[in-house]
Amino acid sequence: MPNRRQHVILHDVLDRLSAFSEGIVVVGGDLNIPLDPRCDTSTGRSGIPHNILRRVNTTLTEHRLTDCWRALHTSTRDFTHYSSAHNSYARLDYLFLPFDSLHLLRSASIGTATWSDHCPVSMTIQSPLLSPKERVWRLNETLFNSPDTLPAVHSLLQNYFLDNVTPGMPSTTVWEAHKAAVRGFFVSTGSRLKKESAAQAIELITQIGALERRHKLLLEEDSYKTLLSLRAKLHTLHNLQAQKTFTRVKRIYYESGNKCGRLLARALRKQRTQLYIHKMR
Q1: What domains sit in the chain, N to C, each tagged with a CATH number?
Q2: How many helices (H) does the chain have, and how many strands (E)?
Q3: Which of 62, 120, 134, 163 has its CA 20 to 30 A from that of 77?
Q4: pLDDT by residue (tens digit) across 131-154?
Q5: According to the model, what pLDDT value does residue 35 have?
Q6: 166-to-96, 99, 154, 169, 178 alpha-carbon distances in Å
Q7: What InterPro entries is this protein classified in (predicted)?
């Protein structure tokens, strides 16, 4: 939402949304406004005019939208944004569910600010439509970025063939079995590195969360500098994960580039929508 006329924009967006929405509607984003300054700001007050606050809350009530985090944390004070200019915290980011869908809400939480100056807000809702899919294993190419991987694979293959190439053992059996051995090595190595990365991320997020809570209470300059340093380390870790995702997406586009599959169907659907002639003069 913009910094001004939030009530007008929100009313217009929700009116347009109600004209075509179906099923469970989830509304979320940065409203740039604390719905209840007494609970949603560290100072207990806001510079937003009272009539704008009232009209925003009235619009949400008219559309039967409920603040998910506040519904589960009725008396808790927590914030999603820190303003260094005003040296104050505020809860500006929200997730809303329709009142008649609130029974599906399982949890709602405010995370730690990592990529931006706003904390992420997440929630869990129950859906009967979710069905788990079988996972097909694929080699994680980023494992080769580690300098220890190639020597370990070389040693594994040497020991494997020394132990299994024996008189009377068919060469086809040895060859097929070595694929399973190599695959098991990559699975275990990838699992170990994933656990180490997850543990490091959890440790950083825990430290960031503790420093955020301390800074919310005391507003110390030293804790804020340490907080920025920990966020930079977490950014580096997330960049490595983003690189893995980017490599996986490149592989998907390469494999599906000349095939009639789901990727092509989605591209054609978008193109068909753009070329649709909805009226003629």
Answers
A1: 6-125 (3.60.10.10), 141-255 (no CATH)
A2: 8, 7
A3: 62
A4: 666 777 778 877 887 888 889 999
A5: 92
A6: 67, 70, 20, 6, 14
A7: Endo/exonu/phosph_ase_sf
